[in-house]
Specification:
alpha+beta, eight-stranded mixed beta sheet, three-stranded antiparallel beta sheet, 13 strands
Length: 205
């Protein structure tokens, strides 16, 4: 076939010691296979400068007051938040978050307690339990998770080392306007195919 199929070349690098950035450039199969390494390298260098500049800039913080509501699947347990979006929105790869969410990572945001109104009944699970786990987690210092006793959805949690705030699982908002995570951690437990999700975030653990 004479058609040229695009090849996507992706380079991941550290623009700063703790910030991961990505640059992506498309090349044709003919260019890539015909020894166009110098062209590819030049394109990647150009993109790297753009990516580095982007990684060094932060979006303006939106301090406007919003009302958001998180709830379990059946609606019995809910949390209403009134206030600006939180500073701490995290993506965690630890096994605790993976097992609890049933996904390959967990997403959560912490809000000041005074901004929250909790309605409904919850069942709690304390971590760590009597039997320690053989791996480090984001809640090694202790946390209590609250889930609905009817549908079993985990909606919020409290961390023993952060008494002033309550964490809410972002998926329970079911709100596509919710801001993206800003930090990521416990990447030694990540699934390789999801690592691009953490690009541009500060690595904290």
């Amino acid at each position: 076939m004479n058609a040229e199929y695009p090849i996507r070349s992706t380079l991941i690098y550290l623009a700063k010691p703790t910030v991961r950035s990505i640059m992506t450039t498309e090349f044709s199969r003919r260019t890539f296979l015909a020894g166009g390494a110098s062209l590819v390298g030049a394109a990647l260098i150009t993109d790297s400068k753009k990516a580095e500049a982007t990684a060094g800039s932060e979006e303006a913080r939106d301090d406007s007051i919003k009302t958001r509501k998180a709830s379990c699947n059946c609606g019995q347990l809910s949390v209403t938040v009134v206030g600006p979006d939180p500073e701490r929105i995290s993506l965690c790869h630890c096994y605790l978050c993976q097992k609890q969410s049933g996904s390959t990572f967990g997403l959560q945001a912490r809000f000041p307690r005074e901004q929250l109104t909790i309605e409904g009944k919850s069942t709690t699970w304390k971590f760590p339990g009597e039997k320690p786990v053989p791996y480090r987690t984001c809640s090694d210092e202790g946390a209590t998770f609250h889930f609905c006793p009817v549908c079993a959805s985990t909606v919020y949690y409290t961390a023993d080392n952060d008494k002033a705030r309550i964490g809410i699982k972002i998926g329970t908002f079911a709100d596509q306007t919710f801001p993206p995570p800003k930090i990521t951690g416990y990447e030694e437990f990540h699934h390789p195919w999801v690592m691009n999700l953490g690009l541009g975030m500060k690595v904290v653990a």
